[in-house]
Here is the input.
Amino acid sequence: MNKPNVKKGKLYFLLLIMLGTLFLLPNFYRNKWKAVDPIYYDEWQIRYDRLVIARLVKNRQDGFFSAGGFLGLGDVDKWSYQSTVHAHQYDVYLKNDEFQSYLIYKSNPGFQGALYGTIDIFLNISGESKLVIFRGITATASALTIGLIFALITIEFGLLAGVFMLIFSAFSIWTVLPASNIFWNFWIFYLPVFLTISLLSEKAQQKNRNNKILYSAICLATTARILLSGFDLMTTVLIMTTVPVVYYAVLHRWTWKIFLNHFIKISSALIIGTTAGLFIMGMQIASVEGQASNSLSYIVSRIGKHFAGNTEFYADGGIEATRVGMVELISKYMLFPAVNLRLPGPDTQILYWHIILVFFIFTGLLMINNRNQNETDRKPIALLIATWYSILAPLSWIIIFRPHSIIHPHVNSMGWQMPFTLLGFALCGYVISILFKRKLS
Here is the structure.
């Protein structure tokens, strides 16, 4: 490719990112087109953001390293989800007041407090304006992230594939909800997978460069994801990051040796990054508790509760989580709404099982088309396999941490978009493009 074409290709790529970002921003910032019920949207934001807001008060009051740097709640002696508790965190922050006590949240490293706390210190404006800026920064980062995915899919599979994915992302309940949330920092979930794509793309392979820096970057991005968002959906992120390995392996007909070489190296970087995140949080707990052994016992206890669920119950019935079967649990997530269509009359909800059924139909169409064609193009089958491999990402967290998944579908449903449904809609658009081209030929 000559230099003018390379420059034109880069400009087109940047244009796609910009257009995708601008399309997503209205919903990502404040649910502009009401993809989510407005009352539920506001409640969901406050439920998680309040922890960061309380940390900002603690930063100003006692410094960034006070209480181990953890998020928490002010002026309570136990965890509460009452609206009065929510309101109090914001009220103290906006009035530049102080807490009389601070209950720490030790299950999340809480570096959100350091990130937004730094901005909080340097901005000499009202608290209300700062909150707008915090949400604006996070929403823009999330929109840029999905905009980048849109550009990558469009370049690789065509405009229709990218548009299908983009429209779904703009109106999916579980992308709109976390997009501007300063607790979740939705954008950082996808950072490791972008680095994997950069590592494995055809252009990167042609350069024969030393990839130690990128492997290190994947490791650091994994740690950063933990520090800025916690450990929820961790297995989902880990598996999502390996999806490009599967795609490029099929696309380029890698041998098992090449595939395992990349898979093991990337997995190692992910494991080291995750371990580093655990170590940092352990050090924080030790600084609060005074002993390293206390941090280890706490971490083991939390993992045990997520995994075994001895003390976790349904919020509304006290039913032991371990008694819920796997089929029942997965069905629970299949029946969860993915998109809320606001049409004249009652709202119409598209559930995840509806979407998965559509993906199955387009999978069948692609397989039938490939069987009748003597094509050498590996992209269709590579995308197909990568898409269905990626369903393991959300299912891994749901299945492994069953008790947590029973209680928290309002969080774990984000996992469907990492990246299974995004690739699934890209697959649908790509199949339509293939069939249309075949009809014209």
